[in-house]
Amino acid sequence: MNPQPPAPTCYRHPDRATGLACTRCGRSACPECLRPASVGQHCVDCLRQGQADLRPVRTVAGAPATQRAVPYVTYLLIALNVAIFAITAAQANNVADNQRSQLFFDWVLAPPAVADGQWVRVLGSGFLHYGPIHLLVNMFALYILGRDCEMVLGRLRFVTVYLASLLGGSAAVMWLAQDTSTAGASGAIYGLFGAMTVILLRLRQSPVQMLVLIAVNVLISVSLPGISLWGHLGGLAAGTLATGGILFLPQWLRAKTPQAARAVGWTASAGVAVIALLLIVAAAAELA
User: Fold this and answer.
1) Quick one: which of 123, 174, 210, 237 could link to 197 by a disulfide (CB 3.0–4.6 Å)?
2) pLDDT (0 to 100) of residue 267
3) What does the DSSP 8-state code read for residue 41?
4) Residues of the chain whose pLDDT is less than 50?
5) Are 247 and 202 in contact (CB under 8 A)?
6) What is the spatial distance between Cα 266 and Cα 212, in angstroms, rounded to a whole number?
7) CA-CA distance, 104 to 160, in Å (whole number)?
8) What is the pLDDT of residue 43?
């Protein structure tokens, strides 16, 4: 009489006999080391390997796609704008007439002052606002547009587009409105208008509503006095180009891997910001 073969043991716990096995790799495993699967049961190692092989879901820009993503950058930008407005209002002892603040005086975008070496105005002016209504309108637009743009582009790309838009608006003012002083996040906001339009085109959705909104805002900029039309148009152009570089340029250049596509997008969006900065430097040299 042949002796019975020994009972199989768990591959992770050799001291435990088991009649169960992983339906994926076939190794014997105890109930503690198995997990229910759609077909049979998988051991914990096969389950871990399967999760590692899954590609993360990403947006068209290559950013991780998740419904629970919090637009931290958008909220941070809003907080910075509100905080700087609060400082100017406190310095001026007047919420409505905060332009009398020393910070406002030091940061407002005045091209001759930039040419004199006061470069902080190029970025700082994008966080100043002429009174609470100006602040509220811009922050509402930033809240609406920023959340969606940040979700699609990802946080770092969103920062790049916002910065490129702000610099684009400043560059346009430096070249085309040299006798004015401007302030506000409107140039960057217009850049987000352009960014959202490009995103809709990339997602094959109609951009008509965004185009109408842009046209209405440009008409307001032309009609009302005291509004920096060139700052708005410069921001719009820069934001549109930066986002187009992220979403469309990799396709046009036939980038063959996700890594190559992200590299092309980063280069294009950063390139727009650098070009805007070079235009500012050139305008400052012209004025000096």
Assistant:
1) 210
2) 92
3) E
4) 1
5) yes
6) 29
7) 25
8) 86
Residue 259 forms beta bridges with which residues?
none
Q: What tokens does 157 get?
A: 């790309």
Is residue 232 within 8 Å of residue 218, measured between CB atoms? yes
* The pLDDT value given to residue 160: 96
The number of beta carbons lying within 10 Å of the beta carbon of residue 72 is: 10
Triad 185, 241, 272: Cα angle to 5°: 80
DSSP assignment string, 129-159: -SHHHHHHHHHHHHHHHHHHHHHHH-HHHHH
Q: What H or E segment, with its residue span, contains residue 82? A: helix 72-92
- Residues 20 and 32: beta-carbon distance below 8 Å: no
SS3 (DSSP) at 168: helix
Q: Which two tokens stand for residue 121?
A: 């105005």
Q: How far apart (Å, rounded) are the C-alpha atoms in residues 282 and 170?
A: 12
User: What pTM was estimated for this model as a whole?
Assistant: 0.80
CA atoms within 13 A on the CB side of 287: 22
What pLDDT, on a 0 to 100 scale, did the predictor assign at position 17? 84
Which residue's entry shows tokens 């009174």? Answer: 131
Between CA 89 and CA 95 the distance in angstroms is 5
